[in-house]
Amino acid sequence: MSYPGYPPQGGYPPQPGAYPPQAGGYPPAAGGYPPAAGGYPPAAGGYPPAAGGYPPAAGGYPPQGGGYPPQAGGYPPAAGGYPPGGYPAPGGGYPAPGGGFPPQAGGYPQPGAGGYPSMPPGGGGWGAAPGGYGTPGAQQGYPGGPTPGQPMPSFPAAPQTNPSMPGYGGGAPANPQAPAISKGYRGSIKDFPGADPLRDVEVLRKAMKGFGTDENAIIELLGNRSNKQRVPMVAAYKTTYGKDLKHDLKSELTGNFESLVLAMLMSPAQFDAFELREAIKGAGTDEPCLIEILSSRSNAEIHEINRIYKAEYKKSLEDAISSDTSGHFRRLLISLCQGNRDERETVDISLAKQDAQKLHAAGENKLGTDESQFNAILCARSKPHLRAVFHEYQQMCGKDLEKSICSEMSGHLEDGMVAVVRCIKNTPAYFAGRLNRAMKGAGTKDRTLIRIMVTRSEVDMLDIRQEYLKAYGKSLYTDISGDTSGDYKKLLLKLCGGTD
What is the residue-averaged pLDDT of the chain? Predict the structure, then answer.
């Protein structure tokens, strides 16, 4: 098997004076080996192997008769440097005086970070696939060589590395890890092939210019671009026309359609920060919005939200939450907005059992409730660990933790704790429930509908659709169609991606 840009296995044909090739060997870098005259191998008196030299014959290193010229003191060299008359050879030998490789036409490329010249750093070391170097699945190391990390047979211990001679293959990890298995892309919006923001803003400008607005052109464009293709349109529009795209859209569009279009032109963290700000400012607080965002985002996403919130609104998110909430609910939100949840995938069952016992002792088995214990476990432990805790709790108490929370807590704290538990158990099912509650009944909670459809369209919308159908017996597409109308409905259905 060969890879684009690399020679077929078997290496390059041997050059005069070169090492005998080995199957699957490394191809030389451009301008490298074989060197120009005066390079390596050096001129007479230097280091070229005689018949029977490198690779060494059976029996180890030094090679048997006919190999490298023996040197006084043997290998490793005697204290005080190279033995007289040995290696390097005068007149262009290797290494050159002053450290490093001798200059030559094309030069030896310097070793790159984490490896040898011309080798891209491999994900998981040599022989790894796909980021590594060599045939996928092949054992790490040179063909015919020993297992990585094992000493070469019959070789004496190597001397300390000469500072002028970089270690070979220093970037290969001793215990390469297999890459995580990809579960596949579960979003409904994908990158559009060949999208160009400069061409896209021409479409938007034409749709808004003149009498009336071509909403269908806007829907078709934005509904077929991923977030990373939409966001650059804002800068491209200003560069091309010297005007603000969001301002022009606001002047042309109205209502929920306008809100949805503007949401789609923000990065995920920008939109989350904007939504948190809207939930906090003003007379009332949209507590479900705070809970939804902070309980479902990763540590990295929460850190970016915090950064943008401070930059945009000149106040930290934690301070904003502190001034707008109170009690144990405030503690829950502040814990979540730190973005310090353990994200390891490993689970210690004995620790999970201990945590389940602590939750039982803090709730069902206590007069009153120790909310701090719930806070400490639900906000700090990893999601795989907490799923094990929920299982152990069920086994121990014969009752679901979510039901215990509902019987022990009330108000926004109950809502927040239940949301954290549901989100950890099954994030798509949690969002399916949020969408259903946003649409059922007399009115529609359009802000919630817009936020979830925009933020999950490139994360897990396909899974949310499956959970929605399983829980409510109707497709999400059908419910959106029946609960919204006009251009707003058309663009929401683009984000939904299809019926089930």
Answer: 77
